[in-house]
Design a protein that fits this description.
about 30% helix, serine-type D-Ala-D-Ala carboxypeptidase activity, globular, 12 strands, Beta-lactamase, about 425 residues, two-stranded antiparallel ribbon, single chain, hydrolase, alpha+beta
Length: about 425
C-alpha cells in the first residue's frame, strides 16, 4: 500500500505533542505487503553465524539493520531485543547515550514507552472483565457517571478500541506547539506542567465527539485516561497499583516504572531530544502527567519482550479475554486495532503489539500471535526531515526479525501515515 500524505491536522498534532518527530509517517501500524496471507508460524531460530543461507536471521545482520536506523541521520540511539521461546535470543545497541558524548547507548537502558502503556491498561481491564467486575459491552456511564457526555451510549469496548468517537485531548489548541516559540517554551518550562486526568478529560469533553459511538475509528488518548479512571473506580485502587500487582510483580518486570509526576528516568538511559531550529534540545526529563494512563510508563526492551510474550502466550489473559483483545476493527490507516493491541502486517504475515511515541522517544514492541517471538525497540529520533528513512529502516529490522527477508522493503511494505502518538504522543501514539 503506498504511503499517504498526512493531513495538515495530523501534521499540526505531530508538532504539538511530538514536536514534529516522525511527522508524515505513522508510528502505529504496518501496511500489508502484496501476497501477505498468513501470519508468521511462530517457530523461529536465530543463528549467530554470518552468511547462512537458510532463511533465518543472524546476529550480524540484525546488528546491521539496527545500525541502519541511525545511518539515516535522524536519531541518536537505538536499542533492541529479540526474545524467542521465552529466552533472549539477541540484543543490540547503536548510537550514543547523549549528544556530545562517545558513551554508547546502554543496551539495558530504560526509556519512555509512550502508548505501549495502553496495552498494560487494556490487559488489566480484561482481567477485571474475566472476574466479572467490568462488562465490555456495559456503558461507560455505569462506571464513570457524568464524566463523558452521552456516556450511556458508549460501551467500554468502544473506549478500548477507539470507536467511541471521544475527542483526543492532545488535539486541543491548549497543547499546540506549532511554532518555534511554542516549542522553545515547551523545552524551557512547559514540560514541567502537572495535569490531572480530570483536567485532561475535561479538555476533551469540551469538544464535540468525532462521530456517534461505534460509527468510526479515531485514535484518542482520552480513551485510555478514561480506562485508567474506570480501573480506579472498580477496584478502589489506582491503575498504577493494579498494573504493579497484576502484571509487573507476577512477571518480574523489575525495570518497568510508573512515574506519575516524577520527571527523571531512573537508571541507565539514552537521552531524548526535541528538534528546534537552534538545534536539538534535551527533553529527557519531563513531567509525564500529560500522558498519564495513556502513555506514561518507563521500561526496558527486556521487560517489554517478556510482557508481550506473556500476553500473547496466554499467561496474563484467558483464551476468551485474549480472543476479545485480538478482535480488531479496521482503521484504514495501515493497521487494525483490537482492545489496546495493534495488528500489523509484514511480508510474511501478521504481528501484534503496540507502538509508542512521546517527546524524544519512539518505541515498538511486536510479536507473533503465539507469543514465541517478540522484538522490542527504542529509538531516540530528533530530526523530522529524516523520519521516513528511520521508519523504513525500522521496517527492515522487523522484516529480518520475523521474515528473515532481504532488508529492502518495497514502498508497499512501508509504514503509512496514521494518527500521531501521544505527542505529547504504535499511535500510541
Amino acid at each position: 500500500m503506498p504511503n499517504r500524505q498526512p493531513s495538515s491536522t495530523h501534521h499540526r498534532h505531530s508538532l504539538r505533542l511530538a514536536a514534529g518527530l516522525l511527522a508524515g509517517v505513522t508510528v502505529l501500524g504496518f501496511a500489508p505487503a502484496a501476497g501477505a496471507a498468513t501470519p508468521p508460524s511462530g517457530t523461529f531460530t536465530l543463528s549467530s553465524a554470518q552468511g547462512q543461507d537458510d532463511g533465518r536471521p543472524d546476529s550480524a545482520t540484525l546488528q546491521q539493520e539496527l545500525n541502519a536506523i541511525l545511518a539515516q541521520g535522524g536519531a541518536t540511539s537505538a536499542i533492541a531485543e529479540i526474545r524467542e521461546n521465552g529466552q533472549v535470543a539477541w540484543r543490540g545497541t547503536a548510537g550514543v547515550r547523549e549528544l556530545g558524548s562517545t558513551a554508547p547507548a546502554p543496551i539495558d537502558g530504560r526509556f519512555r514507552v509512550g502508548s505501549v502503556t495502553k496495552t498494560f491498561l487494556a490487559t488489566v481491564l480484561l482481567q477485571l472483565s474475566a472476574e466479572g467486575k467490568v462488562g465490555l459491552d456495559d456503558p461507560i456511564e455505569q462506571y464513570l457517571p457524568g464524566v463523558v457526555p452521552g456516556g450511556g451510549a458508549i460501551t467500554v469496548r468502544q473506549v478500548l478500541n477507539h470507536t467511541a468517537g471521544i475527542f483526543d485531548y492532545t488535539e486541543d489548541p491548549k497543547f499546540a506547539e506549532d511554532t518555534e516559540a511554542e516549542q522553545e517554551q515547551l523545552a524551557a518550562s512547559g514540560r514541567w506542567n502537572t495535569y490531572t486526568p480530570q483536567q485532561l478529560i475535561a479538555v476533551a469533553t469540551s469538544h464535540p465527539p468525532y462521530f456517534a459511538p461505534g460509527q468510526g475509528f479515531h485514535y484518542s488518548n482520552t480513551d485510555y485516561l478514561l480506562i485508567g479512571e474506570l480501573i480506579g473506580s472498580v477496584t478502589g485502587q489506582s491503575w498504577r497499583t493494579e498494573v504493579q500487582q497484576r502484571i509487573l510483580r507476577p512477571l518480574g518486570l523489575h525495570h518497568t516504572y510508573l512515574p506519575d509526576t516524577e520527571t527523571r528516568i531512573p537508571g541507565p538511559h539514552a537521552h531524548g531530544y526535541l528538534p528546534l531550529t537552534s538545534g536539538p534540545a534535551d527533553i529527557t526529563e519531563l513531567n509525564p502527567s500529560v500522558a498519564g494512563s495513556a502513555g506514561e510508563i518507563i521500561s526496558t526492551t527486556d521487560d517489554l519482550t517478556e510482557f508481550n510474550a506473556a500476553l500473547l502466550g496466554g499467561r496474563l489473559l484467558g483464551p476468551d479475554q485474549l480472543a476479545e483483545m485480538t478482535t480488531t476493527v479496521t482503521t484504514n490507516q495501515g493497521f487494525d486495532y483490537g482492545l489496546g493491541l495493534m495488528r500489523g502486517t509484514l511480508p510474511c504475515g501478521y504481528v501484534w503489539g503496540h507502538t509508542g511515541q512521546i517527546y524524544g522517544y519512539l518505541t515498538y514492541v511486536v510479536g507473533d500471535r503465539t507469543g514465541d517471538r517478540q522484538i522490542a525497540l527504542s529509538v531516540t529520533p530528533y530530526d523530522p526531515t529524516k523520519s521516513a528513512g528511520v521508519v523504513r529502516a525500522i521496517n527492515a529490522l522487523l522484516g529480518q526479525t520475523f521474515c528473515a527477508a532481504p532488508a529492502n522493503p518495497a514502498p508497499s511494505s512501508a509504514l503509512t501515515t496514521g494518527p500521531a502518538d501521544l505527542e505529547p504522543s504504535l499511535t500510541g501514539q
